[in-house]
């Protein structure tokens, strides 16, 4: 099975400073791997028109519903999520992670999860800018993200197989 994350409305390449926050330049967003020594998946610049990631995962049906696991999925059963990690360069010139958004898989409607298991594709669609114009962070659940079952192999832009 796969999870496709479709991000839009990115916040830009600069995250301005604020109280207790130094601000960051050259902002990028990527999917954070579960393994600490692995590299983030496909960083996209914060001013890109959109961001798209496709994650391979394993789906297991159980009494508690669908459980997804894989190298990009974090958390325990019933509390799984995917991290979108924001990194940039601070005022001292050091690049590092400064924010993360948790796409909460336990917030996927069970009927959508079951349909996605049947089609082989779960699709998350979300804006990557928060209400203050900064990179999206914290736990992300509907309505901030829309989950749907997709058709595996379908091009997300053209809709063709």
UniProtKB/TrEMBL annotation:
Q: At the top level of its lineage, which domain of life is listed?
A: Bacteria
Q: Which organism is it from?
A: Streptomyces katrae
Can you say what this protein is called?
DUF5990 family protein
């Amino acid at each position: 099975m796969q999870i496709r994350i479709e991000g839009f409305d990115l916040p830009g390449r600069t995250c301005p400073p604020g109280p207790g926050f130094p601000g960051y330049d050259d902002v990028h967003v990527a999917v954070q791997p579960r393994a600490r020594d692995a590299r983030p998946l496909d960083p996209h610049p914060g001013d890109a028109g959109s961001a798209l990631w496709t994650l391979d995962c394993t789906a297991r049906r159980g009494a508690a519903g669908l459980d997804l696991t894989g190298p990009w999925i974090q958390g325990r059963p019933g509390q799984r999520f995917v991290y979108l990690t924001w990194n940039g360069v601070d005022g001292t010139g050091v690049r590092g992670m400064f924010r993360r958004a948790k796409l909460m898989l336990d917030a996927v409607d069970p009927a959508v999860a079951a349909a996605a298991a049947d089609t082989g594709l779960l699709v998350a669609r979300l804006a990557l800018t928060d209400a203050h114009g900064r990179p999206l962070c914290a736990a992300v659940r509907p309505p901030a993200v829309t989950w749907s079952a997709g058709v595996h192999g379908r091009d997300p832009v053209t809709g063709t197989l």
